[in-house]
Amino acid sequence: QVQLQESGPGLVKPSETLSLTCTVSGGSISNYYWSWIRQRPGKGLEWVGYLYYSGNTNYNPSLKSRVTISADTSKNQFSLKLTSVTAADTAVYYCARPPDLWGRGTLVTVSS
Amino acid sequence: EIVLTQSPATLSVSAGESLTLSCRASQSVGRALHWLQQKPGQAPRLLIYGASTRATGIPARFSASGSGTEFTLNISSLQSEDFAVYYCQQDNDWPLSAYSFGQGTKVESK
Q1: What does the pLDDT read at residue A31?
Q2: Residue B33: closest C-alpha in chain A
C-alpha cells in the first residue's frame, strides 16, 4: 500500500523559503504525477503544482514565480520550495496523487 | 481554468436524513469529476471517482451521478461520521491542464 509522508520545518520566517519533502513508501514514484496541495486555515483546497517523476512540472499560475517542485528518484521523494513567503502562505501542505492518495499534511506557519 | 462551484455552502441536517450536494463546472469535464470527504484535522479521502464509482470501502449510502457540467453527491440516511466537508475535484485533460477543486460544502449537525 502506497503511503505519503510530508516532512519539513513547521515555522518559516517571512521572506524566507519554505521547503518540504514528501517521502513515498510502498511504491515507486516512477511513472506517476505527484502534487502539492495546500489548505489555508479554514479554507478550501488549493493546487500548488505537480511534477512527473522525470521532471516535467506544472504550477498554479498564482504561485508560479515562487514555486519549484522537484523529484529525487533515488530516494523516492519529491520536494516543494516556495520562496519569499508571507503570512498568506501559512497553510497545511499536502503531498498527494489526487484524487485517491494523500499524505496526512503538515502545517507550515509563516511568522517572525 | 475550469471553475467548480459547489452548493450549498453549508447544509444543516440531522442524522438519518438524506441529502444532495451539487457541483457545477464552468465547462464540460466529461466524467472526470471526483468527490472527496474531509473531516477536521484529516486529509481528504476519496469517496467517488469518475463521477459515479464508489472508492474502495465507501458505504453504499454514498452515491453520485452526473456528467458534463452538472454533478450531484447523494448521502442517504446520514450517519454521525458523515458530518464533514465535501469537495468535488476535476481532472479533465489532466496533465495537460491543471485540476481544480470546488470550494466545499460543509455538512453540519442541525
Answers
A1: 86
A2: A99
Q: What does the DSSP assignment read for chain B?
A: ---EEEE-SEEEE-TT--EEEEEEESS--TT-EEEEEE-TTS--EEEEETTTEEPTT--TTEEEEEETTEEEEEE-S--GGG-EEEEEEE-TTTTTS--EE---EEEEE-
The answer to whether B9 faces chain A, any CB pair under 8 Å, is no
Shortest distance, CA B17 to any CA of chain A (angstroms): 25
The answer to whether B98 contacts A58, with C-beta atoms less than 8 Å apart, is: yes
Question: How far is A45 from chain B, CA to nearest CA, in Å?
Answer: 6
The position carrying cell 463521477 is: B51
Q: What is the pLDDT of residues B17-40, one digit of tens each?
A: 999 999 999 999 999 999 999 999
pLDDT tens digits, residue range B63-88? 999 999 999 999 999 999 999 999 99
pLDDT at B49 over 90: yes
Separation of alpha carbons B80 and A39, rounded Å: 24
